[in-house]
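Notes from hallway chat w/ T.B., transcribed later so I don't forget. T.B. wanted the structure written out for a chain they're using in a teaching module, and asked if we could keep both sequence and structure tokens in one place. Agreed to drop them here.
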Amino acid sequence: MMDYRQKRKLSFLTIGLIFLLSGVEYAVILPTIWRYLQLLEAPPYFLGLGLSAFSFSALVSGPVFGHWSDKTRATKTIILFSNVFEIVGNFMYFMGYSKWLLLSSRLVAGIGAGAGSSIFGFLTRTTLPDERAGVFAAVMACRQAGLLIGPAFNIFLRLCDFKLGPFVVNKYTSPGIFMCGMWVLMQFAVMVLYWDIPPLDSFPEQHMPLREVRGEEDEPLMSLEDEHMAAAEDSYGSVSPEQTETQLSSELPPSPPDSPSLDTSDPFENFSASQEFLREEVVVLLTAQFITLFNQTALETMVTPLTQKYFGFGELGNSVMYSLCGVEVIAGFFLVRWLSRVLEDRVVLAVGLLICSVACVWCLIFLANPQGGFAFELIEFIIGVFLQLLGLPFVAVSQVSLFSKVTAEKTQGFSQGVRRSVGGLATILGPLWAGGLIGNLYVMLGMMMLLLTLIMIMMVLSYEKLVELPRVEHAEDSENGG
């Protein structure tokens, strides 16, 4: 019979695999969907619709799954249920037939992605505040690993050219059947390895794992540097999940002798969305989430046409560029990890916003109307992208870390769903805004600068409130909003 520590480790490992797979899915489908749509005679705007459809359905399903998990604590059931949508959606993508089926396939698969809010709620309830961000970082690092590994799968998927019954398997349809198979295997992994372990605050106080660990040495489970390694939904990381889980789980004792006192009260009994989400500090963090993801996706949309127009980059050039960007983002997290030993979350957030603002000003001056010859323009472009990517880890880490601390633990699944929905809305609107203004970069970048100025002002005015609130441990206090 496995103890609490072993079940916790296996559950966290399974969550890491889910996020790894979500990164792989994005990386194998994105490079081929445009040509796939062209073969199905879809108009150009279908690319934007196809990419936005996934984010839209995840935006809607996230709070629903989060609410479900807060009410029932049946996260395993939710994951198994949501994965069915991933399986069906990817099989629809494989079938092809028409542009509308392809669009529907991304809409269906996106519903499955909404389970992320339940997962973050589960992680919040089964970790202590001083270890939570490190666990978030490990899980999000798995998605980044998937994004880096995904292109490798495309090397053999593009060689596919055969029939499977009535279906044609080629380089455009193969990502669908490949991911369908991967999500089916994931179902078995969840059934065998994942456990709905009880929340830490459901144990009697004298048997709290942290208290037992700290009985002899009053030291946190993880150093403060790991506290700040969490990153946003769409986010990046460079922590080995196995190493993090070994560190976390090895220090937890076996199950306490007393069974946890499971709280069966309704976490939403005294819940008020307005009291929870319209507090000053929460609004600032949600705004930071929206603006950074809006700007990030807008710049991603702008980058490829720019490199083609000014530098003649093809698929290979863009692939190399994205690989280098991934390396820089990972290095950025190491930098944030080092800096966060001495800096508070709100200081890290302020530094990140400042870097993003400098990057936006640079792009306005040098990239909106590039001049000076190929070499000079390339250097201007590289510096602009470098600055933008440098600021991302600072903002992403700090706003996620703070958000989990200023919202109620008992309704964390729903709160994380709201946070991810705000990010999802940004990832839909960002490309739409940028896509229509590729030829007018002054307007596009000017709006981004305006948004950054807004969040900087909000940050300054609310700086004193951007700290961890006194943490409540029981359901009756959750109405106070964390």
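Follow-up for T.B.: The two ends are 35 Å apart (CA to CA). Might be a good example for the class.
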